[in-house]
């Protein structure tokens, strides 16, 4: 191991931890047991008050590639990671969370990809959900698709990320916010055209979602900061949405959490999508045909969701120019009619049962 430490590491793995005693050893071991060995593991203990410090002391005795920095007071994950970036000696930075698990070939796959694709600055991949064994979270792979989607949501899974230290730090970007810090980091990087993103179609890590923990406050903070990030990016696109327009944008951005009770006519979504496309035609922030494809995808999804309550959505969908007339468009309109019919039938059955009782 002493021989390893004499070599300048090619990769610096950065892990920030706060009160991570439960999963810390497993996370660290998953890095130490990588098939690729020329790395350093920089762990920033963000003033933990549990057994984290003792576990790290024990682990550092096992492997000389581990470096530990302990903060005197809790600074938050963003500032802790920035300290790791400052200390990193490797040409590549890999991010690792203290409660996740890196598959044994993670670093090998990423370093091989990035050394054969010199244009790539940021490389991510797929994740497996720890609590749902076999459930894979995929994401977009190509640079221009990633950039377009970032206007609506993050699509680069932070626990899988590796990036070139020199080119990324040269942009001046560092971690800032204490929540949604990865989304903020990537969207600011996306404004630099020399930054090329890529997600490789490989499962690189197991990610914990902690379904039994009460994360209500955390989720609310994440949503609030994500809204702020999206609004800033809209300004970068040259748009200052009013309240109704921004509600449209938020619903288009958070399709999984879309709430049909807060009903907004689909015509308003169509109008906002037209504004987005027009603004992009002026700024050329996103590749036009890729951006239009992303807008079409979100238009279809919002129509499908609102069609549960209103069958006229299918007519609006057919009339709009947001998607070209095709067999697929006719099929999607038929699905919208069917969704309304199915939902309405279900409501009537429930009413009849209540009436009989």
Automatic annotation (TrEMBL):
Keywords noted in UniProt: Glycosyltransferase, Transferase
Record-level Gene Ontology MF annotations: glycosyltransferase activity
Annotated Glycosyltransferase 2-like domain residues: 12-144
SUPFAM superfamilies from the UniProt entry: Nucleotide-diphospho-sugar transferases
InterPro entries per record: Glyco_trans_2-like, Glycosyltransf_2, Nucleotide-diphossugar_trans
Recorded superkingdom: Bacteria
Family: Belongs to the glycosyltransferase 2 family.
Protein's name according to its UniProt entry: Glycosyltransferase 2-like domain-containing protein
Organism whose genome encodes this protein: Methylomonas koyamae
